[in-house]
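Task: complex structure prediction.
Instruction: return structure tokens for all chains below.
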Amino acid sequence: MKKYDVIVIGSGHNGLTNGAFLAKAGLDVLVVEKNDYIGGATVSRNLHKDWKYSNCSYLASLFRPEIYRHLNLAKHGLQVVTYNGGFTLTDSGDYLGSFSDHEVMRREIRRHSPVDVDAYDRYYHQMAKWCRFIRPLLLRTPPDPTSFKPRDLDELKFLGKKFFDLGQRDLYDFMKFFTVSVGDFLDEFFDSDLIKAHKAGSAVVGTNLGPRSPGTAYVLLHHYMGDVDGAVGAWGFPRGGMGAISGALAGALQEHGGEIRINAGVDKIMVKRGKVTGVRLENGEEILADRVVSNVDAKKTFLGLMEPEDAGEKVVKAAKRYKSRGSSGKLNIALNGVPEFTALPKGSELIKGDFHIVDNMEAYERGYDEWKDGMWSTNPYLDILIPTLTDPTMAPPGKHFMTCFVQYCPSKVKGQDWNADLLKKFGDNVIDSIAKYSPNFKDLIEHVEIRSGQVIDNEIGLTEGNIFQGELSLNQLMFNRPFHGCAQYRGPVNGLYLSGSTTHPGGGVMGAPGANSAREILMDMKISTTVPEDEGDD
Amino acid sequence: MTSQLKPDHWRSAVKYSPFYNKIKEHDYVNEWHRWAEYTTATVLEDTTIEYFAIRNSASIFDITPMSKYRIKGPDALDFMNRLLPRDMTKIRVGRVAYTVWCDDEGMVLDDGTVFRVAKNEYLLCAQERQMEILRRNSVGFDIEYSEVTDEIAAISFQGPCTCKILKNMGFEGVENMKMFDLRFFDFPGGEIMISRTGYTGDLGYEIWTKNDQAELLWDSIYEGGKDYAIRPIGGNALEIARVEAGLIAAHVDFSPANETVRPGHAKSPYELGLGWLVKPDKGVAFNGRRALIKEKEKGSRYRFVKLDVEGNKTACNAYLFDKENGKTIGHVSSTAWAPSAKTNVALGFVDMPYGEVGDTVWAEIYYQKELKWNKRWAKCKVMKDPAWNPPRKTLTPPADF
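Output:
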């Protein structure tokens, strides 16, 4: 019977990244996927006529350029196209636009709040400082601060040097930044509630916290630290939808001899005498391997795919406590044309970017209150894009695809499982919210896919539909992600590894967890690494 | 100031100075760039010809795009003294001060000129935006401040014939103005302000008017200067003059501290060769004072140097070394072949303790001839004074030409 060097459970982008680097190093790699399509949450699904839906993740920015380059993803068809624009619509019928030109952006800020114009520059430079701190950490394994291993000490030294390089004042600000709420953070810069609301969205996306909850400022940075072709903070569309990323990664994996099996859901990770021996599929088939990489989140890996006695009491307890609550939902909409927004002047190109409808901080907090109560927000924060205004490949000519991310949305509605009726009510609320600003929107809708966290969980296995495979709170970051003891990509038994966003540096279509995990595996096998280092900004 | 901006302000993203139409009449090459919100000429005809108007006759450069702020109120002097490291009690009404301002770490935010137009009123002019710096520092002071960038049209009028031309225009007594004096003169449409200031290291003035006076001012300068080879210039000509005069520029020679992300990349006044502006003992606290006192005691990291570079190849973007093929000790930030001083000038920074006046450092110069790159080592002597520093810059009353 064939025995693989490595089996990767789950063909999400991190699993594929992990497998591709291992295959590139000459290992015999098999990626098993429970669905009949690959990609996990990085997909282009053909769910309505000729439309392609990026029906989970919908943008690329965090995806590490080093992975893109070293796995030759351009050759495998990946093209990430950046976009400009975006806006926040206001209740009063106006808008706040995002302009790429610095002077025009300053004018736009001045139009709404003259005192905030210079503050906008200050905000930008502050974020640039934190990005510069954090970006080089993405493609590194977090050090264990309690370890005296030379490598951990070296990494701690590296981290320490970065800290002290910040200088006295920035060091204080930086410590504060990681613990404050996005509301408090933005208050340090802006007077205008609209500008704060325009910025705060990225801090609550996918997060089970409100804008006044400590720790949300970091989530803002998490969405800011990516780049497209070196432009930090920029976001882009993979041409052909998010599936282009998993498609290219699969191409790289196969180029190096790796295999993928779909319709191959794993029932259990097999362990014998403290060492993994392979996986048993849901159909009973057993596949042997010396190493198993779980690209599934920590909760599902340790509480679902492993026998408790294999995982051990401590890990089981930690996995139970690990937070991966669902807080968001999504609508994927096929449109017969481009919706008109009354607030936008004719000829505006801003609709090519991400747009939003919450115009004050209070509304976010109220939306969060409803979520705590087990309901979706009646006035939700929406992150909406129409990728087909940039990418012509995702819908028939003249038709459009709209992706609409919804915050907040509970994983169960007042404790009750989602059903068709609830989904429809949730979807109608979102559609009505958009239609308030766009009179022709409803008439343009041809098809809607409505997804709650529970729907996403059932389909692709993200616990409660948490987009980050676990919350991005300070207690679940760096050497505590997912929790102490498993933060260096190694599981509680020999030969078991983690590669998903449940590990450092966390969620987003980044590829870094998968790449870092591959580096650790190769290190354990004493094989020279194929995983690139961060290329640096300076 | 409430904003009059409309939701479709982005349709015209560029502002035109009140002098734009006048300048455009002299524009043959259509080379413009943006300076803040305004469009501004890079070259109008020929950089060298424009440069020589600065040094030989009279040049007009539109400085309307400069960031301009009015600060007034009973605490105006105290406020300026708190913000600026200079002793502002020494700057009387009718005088202008060149100065820098710093953050709490003593790093330079920007440099600019402060005009004391009345006992309790100042005009602040700078390259960068200062509104938030004013806002944050105004706490506790009884002052009002406002941005007046778009309300004041201004030109820099520089060259050896400028005083004569101003006299021809009827500005009586203008010849008695000393360097850094400012005065108000009658002009159709209301008083205008003339200051004996500039960015060329030469005899020259800056003239400040209301927008609706701009074209009349322009015409009257042309009338007064018709026999003096007067002409407008673009930014490239000015750049040569300022390097020749050893004057620094934001974003070229230093990175404003509030926009600097990388540790160690901002610079202090001492490191910019502007220690003479810092008065730690002026009797009141000012931004950056403690850090600057500490730096004065412990020593600076860098030294600003004005270099006389051997040979005729400018040391553009060059590294500086202690000797030929030696240790890297600094870098060049600005260069120009100085056509009046006939010197190959470089401005730059070296690590302490290198670069004392009279010392020699070396530059590794790369230059291109017909697309082929060549390399040359050049000995550079650290100059005490700017390459161009003529007596006429300060002579009062100035000669007619």
